[in-house]
Design goal:
The protein has six helices and four strands, in the order H-H-E-H-H-H-E-H-E-E. The chain is an alpha+beta fold. It starts with a helix and ends in a 19-residue tail after the last strand. Zinc ion binds next to strand 2.
Length: 176
Amino acid sequence: MTLYVGRLPERVRRRRARWAVASAVVVVCVAVVGLVHTLGSAATPGPTPTAAQGLSPELEQRFAAAQAAAELAGVPLTLTSGWRSAAEQQAIVDDAVERYGSIEEARRWVLPPESSAHVQGTAIDVGPTEGALWLGEHGFELGLCRTYANEIWHFELLAEGADACPELHADSSSGW
Ligand SMILES: [Zn+2]
């Protein structure tokens, strides 16, 4: 009995210590979630369409058909980027300038919001590499064309009535 009474406060102390740690963890998690939520709200003031929702209906249909055809062929094909807001596109331009170290190099990989087909909902980026290469081979039959020689992943709609995909541009720099 004496022994039990002597150990009890120790156990209580340990339990209290565990609760204190657990509570602190919960408080930190709630704070982090709150902060992320606040930052997210600041970046996106209202509900915006997803990358897939903002695509032109024609492109959405053709990509769905392409995905079905790829699946039949046993090739993975996913959308890695579709519609983008002008703000998202500008952020990509800014990132590219930083990553490539110059506006000249960045222009080869990204267009400004005013000329980007992604902002107009008429371009998609696809992956993985296997899927992108497959679509590069079969895109014409599905009404989708690769646009740039340096981007195996970027596709736009085949123009109405065209009997072939247009010649590839070397890169996106001519669109600036
Ligand atoms: Zn693209």
